[in-house]
Fold this sequence. Notes:
By secondary structure, the chain is of the alpha/beta class. Helix content is about 40%, strand content about 15%. Belongs to the class-II pyridoxal-phosphate-dependent aminotransferase family.
Amino acid sequence: LCSTQSQYISLKLVLNVIKAGQDALTKYGAGLSSVRFICGTQDMHKQLEAKIAQFHGREDAILYAACFDANAGIFEVLTNQSDVVISDELNHASIIDGIRLCKAKKIRFKHMDLADLEEKLKENQGARQRIIATDGVFSMDGDVAPLREICDLADKYNAIVFVDECHASGFFGPTGKGTEESLGISGRVDIINSTLGKALGGSMGGYTTGPKPLIDLLRQRSRPYLFSNSLAPSIVGSSIKVFDLIMNDSSFIGSLKVNVQPFRSKMSRNGFKVLGNDNTHPICPVLLGDARLAAEMADELLMKGIYVIGFSYPVVPTGKARIRVQISAAHTTENIDTAVEAFTEIGNKLGVI
């Protein structure tokens, strides 16, 4: 029983998605052997970008080989020495690396601490641009960023809001449009980066979506876009089908929600500390503290047929090792109960609970 994939709504298993990828593979071959601006752009790439923009309610979108590339290729383009980027201290490594590549002043604010963020914004009102960078959902904690309040501060201090939605796009919110939809603030975020490698098909690829002038600028100057081969046709074909499905059917999201709450509530009732500030999100980190204990518990769970991974430093802070469970729409009620029973048995054995 795999509980460590980011597939969430299990669209990679849908036969129509698989067939769309197979059809594109047959028509175009394994790859296009070129970057986008030479001969690596087919109509299907433009079609997928249009669907991404439509899904998020934005003007345009640009595809990358991965969301790591999307994050690595945006801050350098948007900023110079006169700007400042203010980043949540627990942002994903790809956001951190992307910010490191740019020439702007770089500042971290305490994790989801709005008072600290406002203080940093006040201190940098003289900058040409202020960019607030945050994950929408933090992958190791399951925390949902306070985007409404962040956007309010951005309005107050004339800042740009950048959000990485890798662990929200496709399944979070009533129709899967992500964190801003979940929080009832659709359209307020300025720039959204996300991935095709998790809920949106589980293959690979990333994207940026936002205002058309921004996307036009990235097409001209974003180095990971300019100097990486275009996405393989099979990935593009299956991704187009994924967007067709989720824009017309929200039942996948409902199936996921049915599974999340029972796991969280049963684990908490049995004595485990499950992190995360939103009980509807499928990232369910079980806090253990000790790195060796997390690794041992993951090994014991595998012996019981439950595949999870123990995370410790440097992926998470020292002393906050955990097992990150990721619930999927493909899990059954029996799967959830089996996982909870195994956690409880081994937790008792190892003195966790």
